[in-house]
Amino acid sequence: FLFSGIGILLSVPRLRAEEVAPRIVHHPSDVVVKPGNPARLSCRAEGSPQVSFEWLRNGQPLQVTKADGPMVQPMVLSEGSLFFLSVGEGRGGPSHEGVYACVARNAAGTAVSRNASLRIAVLQEEFSVQPSDVEVAEGEVAVLNCGPPTGRPDPNVLWKKDGVPINVTDPHFTVLSGKLIVAPAEKKNSGSYVCVAANTVGVRESRAARLSVLAKPTLLLKPENASVRLGESAQFYCQAKGDPPPTVVWSREQGPLPNGSRYLVNPDQTLQIHYVTVQDAGTYTCTAANDVGVVTASAQLLVQGIMVKKSLRWKLNKKAQKYAVWRTIIAEV
């Protein structure tokens, strides 16, 4: 009661505590859960008087477990979060997959959270792309393809070499969209590779693929120019290495080596030419080739008898010219 300025006693109603409508301060987030695992959709709200919570699933009120009841359905925790003891995928039991929203209420109003989805984690068995065997030369780029199985959440992809996970800090290796890129490839990178896909459900492995890093041919011995006399033997050396071992073939500028016993290629790839003739003079080429490259080297064969014959012919021609001049002079006299 209050007295007015003129002495009249007034009656004033009792003031109530201030009421504040609920406000969501923590919205739920999307979750992906393996079947049978627990899950939690978080929600918190402020308001006065005290806020109560309920949840919607796919827009409909969700039946929840009482605090003292069996945990068949999810439970609303005291701060408003929704707790699942064991997420069901719907195979012969309840399915908890869906779109959820938290509803906070009090006498002053209602607030609804943002939607959040609960999805069941999966990982298919089959790879969309299996890696296949690859052959490259040293120094080139090798690419091993892999299309991992579809899954939720998206599976992480890693690679194993000879049963051991590759060292991701090795600058030679890069995993890009599931593919393994090896650059530049080295001999030590050869081996058996497996693509591995994993998420919360489990792990899947592809079939093994072989990476073979091959070596282009190189010449250990190259042929050198040779000069021999008519009737002697000539010899040219040529030795090559590579992976796979290269095939060595001899040829000359006119084409393949002539048939016959005078030309002999030894097991060490040395070329021998016996009883050299004038026609044997020229350029001889050693060619080494394998699946990833070719290398060649050439040398000249000089036959000394050819120059002697030319010199003798020139001298005989000079003598013949002098003799013809003397005959002309005598005849005129």
TrEMBL record:
Keywords: Disulfide bond, Glycoprotein, Immunoglobulin domain, Membrane, Repeat, Signal
Entry annotated with the keyword Membrane: yes
Biological process, per Gene Ontology: axon guidance; dendrite self-avoidance; homophilic cell adhesion via plasma membrane adhesion molecules
Span of the signal peptide: 1-17
GO MF annotation list: cell-cell adhesion mediator activity
SUPFAM superfamilies: Immunoglobulin
Source organism, top-level taxon: Eukaryota
Family annotation (PROSITE patterns): IG_LIKE (PS50835)
UniProt-listed Pfam families: I-set, Ig_3
SMART domains attached to this UniProt entry: IG, IGc2
Gene Ontology terms: cellular component: axon; plasma membrane
Domain Ig-like: 22-119, 125-212, 217-302
Subcellular locations according to the entry: Membrane
Protein name: Ig-like domain-containing protein
Organism: Tetraodon nigroviridis
